[in-house]
Model the fold of this input.
Amino acid sequence: MAPDVRLIMAPFELAQPQSLPDAIAMLGEEGVRSLSGGTALMLMMKAGVLRPTRLVSLRKLRISGIETAGGGELRLGAMTTLAEIERSPLVKKGWPVIARTLRTLSNVRVRNVATVGGALAHGDPHMDLPPLLAALGARVTLAGPGGERSIPVMEIYTGYLETTIARNELVTRVEVPPLGSRRAAYLKCTTRSADDWPALGIAVAFDSEEIRIVVGAATDKPTRLHAAEKILKGSSFNEKVLKQAGEAAANEVEIESDLHGSAHYKKQLLRVYLRRVIDEARKPGG
Done:
């Protein structure tokens, strides 16, 4: 007879503040975690990786919604679900690369619950949105006891599950600059189904003046490929240049081995997918 193995979470208190200041006031102590969608947090609690004594639910805070701001940037409230963003006509029209990326982010059940703020704050390098939003030049607004601060998405991450977000800070919104004439794409390679955690994810956004390439999953945090960008900037993306950029990318970052692939395998994926993501972005509608 198979052993009776059960995942049992440690007891915890659930707080449901009605306002952002109240929520911030409840954070900061050891053992207190914020709860947005909870799709990743609950799994970690069931596995015993996290044992918070109190969860501060953000569900009653008015920090959701999708709109354009005065400068034409896309503004996403932190508690907006990924499914709402995926289905938004505004996003599909102005930032179609985001809607396309979300179609294979986990599954529809997760996207109906998971929020954009939680997806960015979680800090897992296998997430799909951080590389893409970083390549698009997105910024995140954080609210804490001292007020608000705005930082680029790239500046959130310091390592595996490590971020610069303080314990008593919350993501309140994400702002994505207008796409304008830029072409953009995100591709990932999964070793199982299309909605599985990727072995490698890579995003690109470029126009005639600038190119940004950000890799995730193969590294311990979303990482810009500066050497590859330098080679590709202003180029015609011919075969020789793409090959040089792929080699530069494979050599400039420290690749992480994990259950989804060895470092050697992921280096080869990076060479291949750098070329593919450029080609994807250059397609009509990219």
The mean pLDDT is 93. The two ends are 55 Å apart (CA to CA). The chain has three domains: 13-57, 66-176, 184-282. The first helix runs from residue 20 to 26.
